[in-house]
């Protein structure tokens, strides 16, 4: 049985989120703006970020709650850049009415 590539990407993304959460717990962020950031909040967006699937209402709600400094942190994080800073992620953010900041 072949596993769809979207599920493989979703599992990889969730693994990155778990590792990011563990690193954040061990080494607290230096910048105060980063304290609001919790990349795990975007897990409902994983499928939409990695495929052309439209974002769910929950994804959009959580994406709109993210602060611009947090989105910038995700966009510039080497562990997340391939998942968050993509054409699909831009489409998701535009679709949710929460455009990606362009001054990161």
UniProtKB/TrEMBL annotation:
Give the Gene Ontology MF terms in alphabetical order.
lipid binding
Q: Is Ribosomal protein among this UniProt entry's keywords?
A: no
Protein origin, superkingdom: Eukaryota
| Biological process, per Gene Ontology | lipid transport
Q: Which UniProt keywords apply?
A: Lipid-binding, Signal, Transport
| Cleavable signal peptide | 1-21
PANTHER family listed in its UniProt record = BIFUNCTIONAL INHIBITOR/LIPID-TRANSFER PROTEIN/SEED STORAGE 2S ALBUMIN SUPERFAMILY PROTEIN, BIFUNCTIONAL INHIBITOR_LIPID-TRANSFER PROTEIN_SEED STORAGE 2S ALBUMIN SUPERFAMILY PROTEIN
What name has this protein been given in UniProt?
A: Bifunctional inhibitor/plant lipid transfer protein/seed storage helical domain-containing protein
